[in-house]
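Deliverable D2.4 — example input (structure tokens):
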């Protein structure tokens, strides 16, 4: 006879084994033969794909799209309310915007002179003026925006979209990220984490190199013909599947087989996407490829349109240098002027092009950074990080154009009206794509995970 204590002591290893077997069993679940095949959404979608224009570093809302007359009036005065308990760096008094604002379009939405070309599309933009997050540091804020978590490794939103919908083009990845940043989380911002590897982003170049070098490496095989490659791949697949028949299903090996197959198919289509020689001079000029100031980001935007029209589900373009681009803790005037000049014309060109091709109707364009910037000064000519209230915008994809959602306080510090947390942003994006964020789940380590974790509400007011 054993006492209960003795039984637990002597069988503890066995309990651990049972738990481990359960976890390994989940990991070993066989993936479908082609997990990127198109999938039926939960309900009728408003958009088929997402095009995310990521401004790394945190563009200032109070200097771009969130006009604050009180900030202009009270320049130099102390902030009339308490600053956040957690701040990234010490800040001083209120700092007015050095740029002039005016209303645009039939909607009368405000935009500063930083974005004169984007402002011409103001009636297509849905201003999300009450965004807020939870992290005042770049690394945590980037991960929060891209994955929904600022302290755990989680699948990126692009991976969730590819997992939920598959792809419309089997010859291209479901998720492409052009010139992504390698800092502040790096590939975790476009990875698939515990989702099958089929859904992670395929990077083209990185933020440290110019976009004309943003190409898939080794896309063409100079030594073997396609028939020889096919024979080689068929043999490898046969060996791998024989192994799985003997050893059991293995999700990682299945994903590796799928990646080889996708790489083989990409040889026929990826070079066509990357080759811009077929684009007219007028189209290249529209995107700013005729100007060295705008050419780098313009090329990214043009590539994004080419991926969108070929059925890629999630395309991200990143405006950043090797570290951060919009992070003006000092010299706000020069830094934001330079940054906006590089992206304003290409973004306007992209919106014009998408609209002319009818692609804007079923493409959700999302613009913004990981947070905004404070209305109070850091030093005498900069702004600190501000996750408490900032602006992003959407266009196309069934959202209301010329519409302003939510608001910050009179100085642009805190979101105060129709507050839109990052979880709400993700829930709304998935809803626009026809997916219920509460039902888009993946079972891992004994629980069902989702992009929005246990949070998130759809911002119904922005839906057209």
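Example output (designed residues):
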């Amino acid at each position: 006879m054993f006492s209960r204590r003795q039984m637990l002591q002597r069988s503890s290893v066995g309990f651990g084994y049972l738990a481990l077997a359960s976890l390994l069993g989940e990991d070993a679940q066989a993936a479908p033969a082609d997990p990127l095949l198109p999938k039926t959404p939960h309900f009728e979608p408003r958009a088929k794909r997402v095009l995310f224009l990521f401004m790394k570093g945190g563009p200032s809302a109070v200097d771009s799209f969130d006009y604050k007359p009180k900030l202009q009036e009270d320049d130099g005065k102390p902030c009339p309310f308490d600053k956040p308990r957690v701040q990234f760096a010490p800040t001083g008094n209120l700092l007015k915007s050095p740029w002039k604002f005016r209303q645009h379009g039939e909607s009368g939405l405000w935009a500063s002179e930083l974005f004169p070309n984007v402002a011409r599309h103001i009636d297509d933009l849905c201003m999300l003026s009450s965004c807020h997050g939870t992290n005042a540091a770049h690394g945590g804020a980037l991960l929060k925006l891209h994955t929904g978590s600022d302290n755990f490794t989680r699948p990126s939103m692009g991976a969730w979209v590819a997992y939920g919908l598959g792809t419309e083009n089997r010859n291209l990845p479901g998720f492409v990220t052009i010139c992504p940043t390698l800092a502040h989380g790096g590939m975790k911002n476009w990875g698939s984490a515990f989702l099958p590897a089929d859904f992670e982003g395929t990077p083209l170049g990185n933020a440290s190199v110019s976009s004309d070098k943003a190409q898939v490496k080794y896309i063409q095989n100079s030594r073997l013909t396609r028939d020889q490659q096919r024979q080689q791949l068929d043999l490898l697949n046969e060996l791998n599947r024989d192994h799985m028949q003997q050893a059991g299903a293995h999700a990682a090996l299945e994903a590796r087989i799928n990646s080889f197959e996708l790489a083989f198919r990409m040889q026929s289509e990826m070079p066509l996407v990357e080759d811009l020689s077929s684009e007219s001079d007028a189209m290249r000029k529209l995107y700013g490829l005729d100007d060295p100031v705008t050419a780098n980001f313009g090329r990214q935007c043009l590539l994004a349109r080419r991926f969108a029209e070929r059925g890629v589900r999630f395309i991200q373009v990143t405006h950043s240098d090797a570290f951060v681009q919009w992070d003006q803790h000092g010299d706000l005037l020069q830094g934001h002027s330079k940054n906006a000049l590089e992206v304003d014309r290409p973004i306007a060109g992209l919106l014009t092009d998408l609209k002319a091709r009818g692609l804007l109707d079923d493409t959700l364009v999302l613009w913004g950074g990981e947070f905004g910037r404070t209305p109070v000064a850091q030093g005498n000519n900069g702004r600190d990080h501000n996750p408490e209230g900032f602006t992003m915008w959407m266009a196309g994809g069934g959202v209301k154009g010329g519409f302003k959602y939510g608001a910050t306080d009179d100085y642009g510090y805190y979101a105060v009206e129709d507050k839109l947390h990052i979880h709400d942003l993700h829930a709304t994006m998935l809803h626009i794509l026809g997916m219920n964020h509460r039902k888009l789940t993946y079972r891992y380590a004994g629980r069902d995970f989702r992009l929005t974790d246990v949070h998130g509400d759809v911002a119904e007011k922005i839906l057209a």
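The CA atoms of residues 60 and 75 lie 16 Å apart.
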